[in-house]
Amino acid sequence: xxxxxxxxxxxxxxxxxxxxxxxxxxxxxxxxxxxxxxxxxxxxxxxxxxxxxxxxxxxxxxxxxxxxxxxxxxxxxxxxxxxxxxxxxxxxxxxxxxxxxxxxxxxxxxxxxxxxxxxxxxxxxxxxxxxxxxxxxxxxxxxxxxxxxxxxxxxxxxxxxxxxxxxxxxxxxxxxxxxxxxxxxxxxxxxxxxxxxxxxxxxxxxxxxxxxxxxxxxxxxxxxxxxxxxxxxxxxxxxxxxxxxxxxxxxxxxxxxxxxxxxxxxxxxxxxxxxxxxxxxxxxxxxxxxxxxxxxxxxxxxxxxxxxxxxxxxxxxxxxxxxxxxxxxxxxxxxxxxxxxxxxxxxxxxxxxxxxxxxxxxxxxxxxxxxxxxxxxxxxxxxxxxxxxxxxxxxxxxxxxxxxxxxxxxxxxxxxxxxxxxxxxxxxxxxxxxxxxxxxxxxxxxxxxxxxxxxxxxxxxxxxxxxxxxxxxxxxxxxxxxxxxxxxxxxxxxxxxxxxxxxxxxxxxxxxxxxxxxxxxxxxxxxxxxxxxxxxxxxxxxxxxxxxxxxxxxxxxxxxxxxxxxxxxxxxxxxxxxxxxxxxxxxxxxxxxxxxxxxxxxxxxxxxxxxxxxxxxxxxxxxxxxxxxxxxxxxxxx
Length: 638
Known about the structure:
Layout: H1 2-28, H2 47-50, H3 52-55, E1 57-64, E2 75-79, E3 83-87, E4 93-99, E5 102-109, E6 119-123, E7 131-134, E8 149-150, E9 154-155, H4 174-181, H5 186-189, H6 204-225, E10 232-243, E11 258-268, E12 272-281, E13 285-296, E14 302-315, H7 320-325, E15 330-345, E16 348-359, E17 366-376, E18 385-396, E19 417-420, E20 429-442, E21 445-457, E22 460-463, E23 475-480, E24 483-496, E25 501-516, E26 537-549, E27 554-566, E28 575-587, E29 597-605, E30 623-624, E31 628-637
Parallel strand pairs: 1-7, 19-23, 22-30
Antiparallel strand pairs: 1-4, 2-3, 2-5, 5-6, 8-9, 10-11, 10-31, 11-12, 12-13, 13-14, 14-15, 15-16, 16-17, 17-18, 18-20, 20-21, 21-24, 22-23, 24-25, 25-26, 26-27, 27-28, 28-29, 29-31
């Protein structure tokens, strides 16, 4: 038996080695055609789908009324370290999937019923029985305002009124409930009853009461028109600033702190969920980003997502470089995207989609970025072994990182202004990338290997600190460093380290050849010479850890990158450096006086593109003197 086990292990090792050699040879002989957007962590996005499938838990339950009868169409939500939503079926049953272990606030909503009080559920690896949520019928109050009439159609609720009780006129949606039960001032205590005192003067409290009736009437009418719509979301109030050195935080050389507001709303439905997000800041640089999207349920054969975003920045400061680079004092960027993950069969998945962007500060404003991928399980008896191939083209404008919604992390509006190096023209960057790889699940660890080929034209370089110290972190310069071809490989490993911690490690190496290296003839700022020399070997090491400390409800997210670009032709010092991002979310249980969940957020980073944001080998490497950004504030999940 021992000899047979060794033979099986040698057979598996030989199979992996042969596949790697064939993949590398295929990529070397295939022309570059596209680019993969998840360059930093090629399989990190799949960790939640693959590794967490065996570690993440499910919450199952049933929604019933006071008589124990099942209720269909109730929206059930779980808010904690992750969020999940589900609709109860005709038997009242619901399932909330892919939830990491930890505490969650469980709630249920259904039109015509009072919202269930928030219930804290501790989710662990131990099996859990069927949860039961009871919803009570709404009870009419004698103080309810008159019924709102819809023009031309009579009462909103045309059902006959029972003789023994008042009609149900009060909206019990969560938002309206909070408005009615908010703490009242002295002016709000008085109410006005028509006909009780015809000679009573119109006091301020009477006007406020009438205004309250109008607001509740609008909310009630909206709930009737959209009876199945239930909103969940998140609200952030943050303060952000940037610095080159820690001591700059207490000097005039640092960037002035500015406030940021973020709002996210999610409306789950039977086929998927609608999302709306928006973030805004004001000051010398006023900017905002707003986006909307629809995401179909992942269990469907076509798990597609489509959306639109729009971003704007307007500068009111006194930086002549920033004012000269902006057309009419502002910049506007719009984006449309649609992606689909088609499960053709249990052993074959096909993904495709594209992004269309419009930049008003480019001569050729419209950029198109398609992407195609395939996942195959070649061995019917071994679903843990997978082959992957991806082809994509990514077109992006210099400074696009300011305007596009982030792949992960905190949503922030455009924070900085930028201008062109030398010739005052913005040239878009295009990256064609083809990649093939394998994945193997070994217990709770996902091991991956890949080979890729990349062709990049007009590689963007971003330069900070080339201006007076008083504004060096709020404005930077962008230009083109030239074109290159690269051929490389990478390996990675991802795993859950216990029920509350997951980690990722990725190494990548490539050899590049610069076909055209540009240096602007008119440069009014100091730019290091090494960013224009030809770096022939690029190496990067990326590590990430995400953990939840259950007793204190503290969530920690850490990313560290080490990038180098060295030349084989000379002994110049290598370009690149280390990049990091740290984010801490601390629950605030002493503020849990409502069903909302309050958290304190603190984050620090000097990564310019963020996790999954970089697309080219040199994107992060050619960010010179990137400042460190720190932000903090309060997050409310409702």
